[in-house]
Design goal:
Length: about 70
């Protein structure tokens, strides 16, 4: 194998590695966006659950008050 072939192989390997890194970087940006959406959804769900829990506790207290009359 000549020196030119070795140099060409090395350059080709570097270019392929750079392409892989670019693809990984793009995938990481997508995952970051997905995680942001997931965190937002989690917060909204937690608020809804807290509201439902409050309603149920209030209804239970109201029922106990009615039964205590």
């Amino acid at each position: 194998m000549s020196g030119l072939d070795k140099a060409y192989g090395a350059i080709k390997s570097i270019m392929l590695a750079n392409e892989r890194f670019d693809r990984i970087e793009g995938e990481m940006k997508e995952l970051s966006g997905d995680l942001g959406s997931l965190a937002k959804s989690h917060a909204e769900l937690a608020e809804r659950v807290a509201g439902i829990e409050g309603y149920l506790k209030g209804a239970g207290a109201r029922q106990k008050w009615i039964e205590g009359k």
